[in-house]
């Protein structure tokens, strides 16, 4: 009888603690979901005015560009750069909210990555040129892979954006692609400021920035690499960094052939 009462008591206490923890979870879960929804809605809403601003700047440049004074030309180009940076941040926030809610579908297709990478690199030529940074590429003739084109583009953009952002004038950024029978890889190497030893793992965490002050000036939120890691892992790949302070960094992404 004593044993029976003890077992009954045990069951009752487990049930009680379970139901209490469940009750406590509900408001927390609801608050978390509301926060996620807010993040998704806010970043979605911000995309439209930003794209209007971008188009308006293009129109101004197209219609009046030839009459611009050197000062106005510089102002318009700075504005375009800032709008672009803000759009990327908003896109990162939106991506983050979507990845958390599990609502991102990866569209895996077979395609040749080489012309795509050449095209994506081209999009960074202007900003690199402004800092006198040279972008070089080492690409094979062709490289057929299977993956989500938009997401891989986002990954390359994050790595290139960082490489240029954290490299000072007259530096170089090198983009390479390669493959072996087991896997394919992409590397982005820069001659920039480098990453300290204790930051090498943490840079892939959300909102982590090595130099908070400097990164904020560059308009960074510390989200890019966490999104890059999420994209890589969704393709069952891995991302790592080799870096020496003051000498530069190399980000290497490896993907299995699927
Ligand atoms: P951010 O938007 O701040 O660049 P990321 O998540 O892309 O966010 O990067 C996190 C941090 O890692 C950056 O703030 C920066 O300190 C560091 N970092 C990323 N890429 C590089 C790089 N190529 N060279 C030096 N530091 C880098």
TrEMBL record:
Entry annotated with the keyword Amino-acid biosynthesis: no
Domain spans labelled Histidine kinase: 41-258
TM stretches of this protein: 1-18
GO cellular component terms given for this protein: plasma membrane
GO MF, one example: phosphoprotein phosphatase activity
Enzyme class: transferase
Taxonomy, superkingdom: Bacteria
Any one GO biological process: cellular response to phosphate starvation
Reaction(s) this enzyme catalyzes, per UniProt: ATP + protein L-histidine = ADP + protein N-phospho-L-histidine
EC number: 2.7.13.3
Membrane topology of this protein: Multi-pass membrane protein
Keywords in alphabetical order: ATP-binding, Kinase, Membrane, Nucleotide-binding, Phosphoprotein, Transferase, Transmembrane, Transmembrane helix, Two-component regulatory system
Principal location listed in the UniProt entry: membrane
Compartment annotation: Cell membrane
Record's protein name: histidine kinase
Organism of derivation: Cohnella nanjingensis
Range covered out of full length: 174 to 431 of 431
